[in-house]
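Supplementary Note 3. Input sequence used for the single-chain structure prediction.
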Amino acid sequence: MGKFDNIFIISDIDFTFLAADRSIPERNIRALEYFKNNGGRFTFATGRSHMTLLETFPNAAEMLN
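The predicted structure, written as discrete structure tokens, is reproduced below.
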């Protein structure tokens, strides 16, 4: 049983997950991987269309589980 089983985080993207320059801070990547590796579930919540999201953040799907 994982430390974060049954916990689901849904994050906005702009200025919540991404930095002001639209990069992904390394600390966010490390924290997300730790969370997912320990049973947590993660996705984004956004008003963007699927195509707009992928234009801005091409590897978004890799972050989700």
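The first strand starts at residue 8 and ends at 11. The chain has a mean pLDDT of 89.
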